[in-house]
Amino acid sequence: MLIHRLILKARARCWRRAPGACVPTVCVGNVSVGGTGKTPHTELILDLLQRSDFWGNCQLGMLSRGYKRKSRGYQVVERGSSASFSGDEPLQIKRKFPAVTVAVDKKRVRGASNMAKDGVQLIVLDDAFQYNRLHASLNIVLVDYSRPVFQDRLLPFGKLRDLPKRIFDADIIIVSKCPAGMDAAEKAMYAGKLRLKDYDASACTARTPGTRKKPGKEIKLLFSHVEYCHPEAVFEGADARYCYAQKVVPVTGIANDTPFKAWLSDTYKLNPGLSFPDHHKYGLADISAILSSARHYRTSLLATTEKDSVRLHDCKDVPEEVRTRMFYFPIKAVFESEEELQCLGAALDALRTAE
Q1: How far apart are CA 168 and CA 149, in angstroms?
Q2: Residues 30 and 129 sit within 8 Å (Cβ to Cβ)
Q3: pTM of the model
Q4: What does the pLDDT look like over 309-337, one tens digit per residue?
Q5: What is the DSSP code (8-state) at residue 350?
Q6: In the 8-state DSSP scheme, what is residue 215?
């Protein structure tokens, strides 16, 4: 474990010394494995950029490594691409934001350079906080409300893939998946769990711990929660009447499906569902299992997540009994206050000076 910590410290030093890209970049990352909500926050950031008076008139891009994709090297993602070609998250982003240039490349320096050559003027980097060869112009780190990083442990004993104090390298920390309606006192209490002090709700700021040699720096601290949207059909020709069923069969392949199931249980009675690993590639055996559940629970809705819907589209010959009953529920990240949304917007607008 000591050697692991030394490696992580060395990697962090390389990250701090790494050069930036030739265009402004925004990194959306975390220090733990899966489930912090990077994708909905990336969508929120892209939406803010598109509505910005300045960036809305520029060519925007999103660069990801394309986790579990089959393609290699630098690839541009199109709306008609498959999840196996691009990875599920990049394809989901491209379909929601067709005007945004979406690309995948494990080597982010090369990917950012290629996108800049193609005219992209600002790049949102997905999950690049541990990539020590490129230092983003603005670093945003997500922390799951239910898993304060200083109360967690490094893999394999906990969920941390990086040192918890690395959150202090961020420009903005977003505490995600919060209970809706947190007040200033609750936020200040959570800031203490993150070892931040002097939390100011009106300015959305806190201060990192200082040392004798180096004073603490001011950091933006924001809080968000998840909202589920109206169901949408996974396959063409689905019967919307199933959305009004009393029972549901959840089908998921995400890092943590507990919140999704809990939300479904507020509206539906849960039948036994099918849970697969994160970023699971659905095959014939999986479709057969879904079909078996559909036939066993004939009046139930088949409910899945948006990421799963992207991967399910790669499946061929999906039976009609599944196609007509399967719907996904999009999610979006929502800040706890208008001031927090404005704070993030101002930080994005400030990147114009880095251009």
Answers
A1: 12
A2: yes
A3: 0.95
A4: 999 999 989 999 999 999 999 999 999 99
A5: G
A6: -
